[in-house]
Amino acid sequence: MAHDRQLAPTTYLKLGRSHMNSKAKTKSQPSTKAPVPVSADPPAPAQVQKPTNERRLHDLVRLVVDTADAKGWDAEAVAQDLKNFKYATIAVSRMAPNTTQEVTGTFEVTCDERVKIAYHQTSFHSWGLSDLYDAIGNEFWRLPWIQKKTENPGDNTARSLSDVALLERLLRRFHRSVRQLKHRHADRPSLVVRDEYDVQDLLHAILRGLFDDIRSEEYTPSYAGGASRMDFLLKSEQIVIETKVASASLRDKQVGEQLMIDIQRYQSHPDCKRLLCFVYDPGGEIKNPAGLETDLTRVHDKLEVKVIVVSP
Predict the structure, then answer these.
(1) Which of 12-21, 57-66, 100-109, 147-156 has the lowest mean pLDDT?
(2) Using alpha carbons only, how large is the chain's radius of gyration in Å?
(3) Among 59, 76, 82, 223, which is least packed, fewest CB within 10 Å?
């Protein structure tokens, strides 16, 4: 299915037409300037102008749409911030291989002080969405105006942003790890993940291979008269991971209420700048995982919150 990918007219296109007009005028009028002496210093090279937000958003949307198209997805920009050029939403869809099931999702582009691309599953099945997200990430650094920051010893901003992306990828694939534990050599007993403690133990083991200072079960500041323990604090990265396991008694409403309380607690924690809320739903109890993610994934009073719901 062909889609019109034409975006809003961008500044650099306007500059192109202006340049052509000025060039035409130059040809029609003979030059009256005196020749430059041989001994004169060569002109300084023109400085490359920093692209406007309009141009940057245009490039990001084009990257997502083109990558999706190359991998066999139908993709279309369905919403764009035409005032400040900070946000855009791209809808993707395709039929799952060898089935009649359609897989759909949205990719949310943020083009502000930091550039971010996140995706949300909007269909029951999510086949191929995480792979498309990885492919977009591989193309991300091809944009000429994106530069990796050189970190100063006291500046962990660039590193923590890459850590968040790494953690999201790990959590999105958590069920693969759980499934793999069921298939062991020589018919050894399976390692079964049954409850929240099992989820925390497995996640803790994986995190140990990636981060040095992991503090589990630290107390959070008091909220509404009581204190609780956080699941994992990555001290150096200033990232907290909070885990939930959905069940028949812990569904959309209950999970959302608990996460709102957690968010309120972590807003006053001195070592928490980013909060990842991981909701593992092995039984498919969460009826609207995309809605739960979208409703709570945002900045809450300077605390960056991202909700990740994972089901088979």
Answers:
(1) 12-21
(2) 25
(3) 82
What are the b/e assignments for 252-288, b being 16+ CB within 10 Å? beebbeebeebbbbbbebebbbbbbbbbbbbeebbee
| 3-state secondary structure (DSSP) of residue 24 | helix
Query: For the whole model, what pTM was predicted?
Result: 0.51
Match 């369905």 to its residue by tokens: 78
pLDDT digits (tens, 9 = 90+) for 235-286: 889 999 999 999 999 999 999 999 999 999 898 888 899 999 999 999 999 9
Q: What is the pLDDT of residues 149-167, one digit of tens each?
A: 454 544 555 555 578 889 9
User: Is 285 inside a domain boundary?
Assistant: yes
Give me the helices (H) in 209-269, please: 252-266
* Same domain as 68, residue 207: no
Final residue in a domain of this structure, among 106, 140, 174: 140
Query: Helices 252-266 and 289-296 meet at what angle, rounded to 10?
Result: 20
- Tokens at residue 59, please? 């490039």
Three-class secondary structure of residue 35 per DSSP = coil
